[in-house]
Amino acid sequence: QVQLVESGGGLVQAGGSLRLSCAASGRALASYMMGWFRQVPGKGREFVAAIPWSGRSAVKGRFTISRDNRENMVYLQMNSLKPEDTAVYYCAAGQSTIASMTLAAGYDYWGQGTQVTVSS
Fold first, then answer.
1. Measured distance CA(77)–CA(50) in Å, rounded
2. Predicted local confidence at residue 19, as pLDDT
3. Max alpha carbon distance in the chain (Å)?
4. Residue 114: phi, psi to the nearest 5?
5. Which of 45, 46, 65, 111 could form a disulfide with 6 if both were Cys (CB 3.0 to 4.6 A apart)?
6. Residue 55 carries which DSSP code?
7. Long-range CB contacts for residues 38-46, cutoff 8 Å, separation at least 24
């Protein structure tokens, strides 16, 4: 079992930045694909970014995902935020492959989510 706890969400103005953190416990993250998803009311979870066990960081547009396997931490740096980025952001861990890492179904463990609100 892996327990994931997100933090770092909040209210930010458009154009601002936030850094989300995900702390893992229970098992080492080293063997897992780690991902960030987001969800708004009435919609399914949307893929934001992912990083395989061997990665250090990966950039997807305005967002950068990074991981520290020694500290069992995963981060999401979000820059130039827009109102449409408003959502609950979830950290996830699973045995996904590179080919399936964008699919929520490929992840076995999820955090409780952290709210990000971007004001215009």
1. 12
2. 98
3. 40
4. -135, 135
5. 111
6. -
7. 38/85, 38/87, 38/88, 38/89, 38/90, 38/116, 39/87, 39/88, 39/90, 39/113, 40/86, 40/87, 40/88, 44/104, 45/90, 45/104, 46/87
Query: How many Å from the N-terminal Cα to the C-terminal Cα in the chain?
Result: 40
Dig out the tokens for 31 from the structure: 């063997």
Place of tokens 């919609």: 43
Neighbour-count burial of 15, counting CB atoms closer than 10 A to its CB (0-12 exposed, 13-18 middle, 19+ buried): exposed
Structure token pair of residue 105: 């179904």
Token pair listed for 25: 């416990």
Amino acid at 33: M
What are the 10-residue block averages of pLDDT along the chain, 120 residues in total?
Answer: 95 98 86 94 96 86 94 96 98 88 94 97
Tokens 């109102």 belong to which residue? 83
